[in-house]
Specification:
Mean pLDDT: 89
Keywords: Chaperone
Strand content: under 5%
Protein name: TorA maturation chaperone TorD
Distance between the termini: 29 Å
Largest sheet: none
Organism: Roseateles toxinivorans
Number of helices: 10
Pfam families: Nitrate_red_del (PF02613)
Low-confidence stretches: 1-14
InterPro entries: DMSO/NO3_reduct_chaperone, TorD-like_sf, TorD/DmsD_chaperones
Length: 208
């Protein structure tokens, strides 16, 4: 499957599930590649107030929007390249196997591929990144929320995938990224992602 097209949070009256799917899609886009001029333009008009003032995600979302509005396409691209695409070892790894096993292409990736096979999903042959790339696992979550196949696109499948392939490492990845001195825009991306992961974790806790 392919990475989601750039999207932003829906208006406050959007359904909760649609909003969740769109957040995963947005984060997938931001981690897969630096934001395009079009996506940065969407941030210029993005809604920044939650339906209920003081919502848990409201402040980190406002901070992310402010950082995106203060950035431009060349700046964002330069930051992305410096953080994630360094020659040799990148400053910040984007792959789950690194955070769970300490190395790339290890057992967590094998387990992830097995889970994807059970869901009937496979990596797009044109995609160079491995399936444990944070953008890919977020895109899978988006699919499990918004997809049409109810046999796999349901809350229980979301919970299982999140517990096995998202929750064990994304928070540590966000902490690493947020603390990096070279992160500006992507510090706010990391902090918003971290807050969203906390909301998702709590919601899945309530299912158990």
């Amino acid at each position: 499957m392919s990475i989601a097209q750039p999207i932003v949070m829906s208006a406050p009256d959007a359904g909760e599930e649609l909003a969740r799917a769109e957040i995963y899609g947005l984060l997938s886009s931001l981690f897969f590649a630096p934001p395009s001029a079009e996506l940065l333009g969407q941030f210029q008009v993005a809604v920044t107030e939650a339906p209920e003032p003081g919502g848990f995600l409201e402040r980190p979302w406002q901070d992310l929007v402010a950082a995106a509005r203060a950035s431009d396409e060349p700046q964002a691209a330069a930051e992305y390249e410096a953080l994630f695409m360094g020659v040799g070892k990148p400053e910040v790894f984007l792959y789950g196997s690194f955070y769970m096993a300490g190395y790339l292409h290890e057992t967590p990736l094998v387990k992830l591929r097995s889970s994807l096979g059970e869901l009937g999903l496979a990596r797009d042959a044109a995609m160079q990144e491995t399936e444990d790339h944070v953008a890919y696992v977020f895109e899978v979550m988006r699919y499990l929320i918004a997809g049409d196949d109810l046999a796999v696109c349901n809350l229980e499948r979301q919970r299982q995938f999140f517990r096995a392939h998202v929750q064990p490492w994304v928070e540590r990845f966000c902490e690493t990224l947020a603390q990096h001195p070279g992160a500006g825009l992507y510090r706010q991306v990391a902090l918003f992602t971290q807050a969203f992961m906390a909301v998702e974790t709590q919601a899945f806790d309530m299912l158990e």
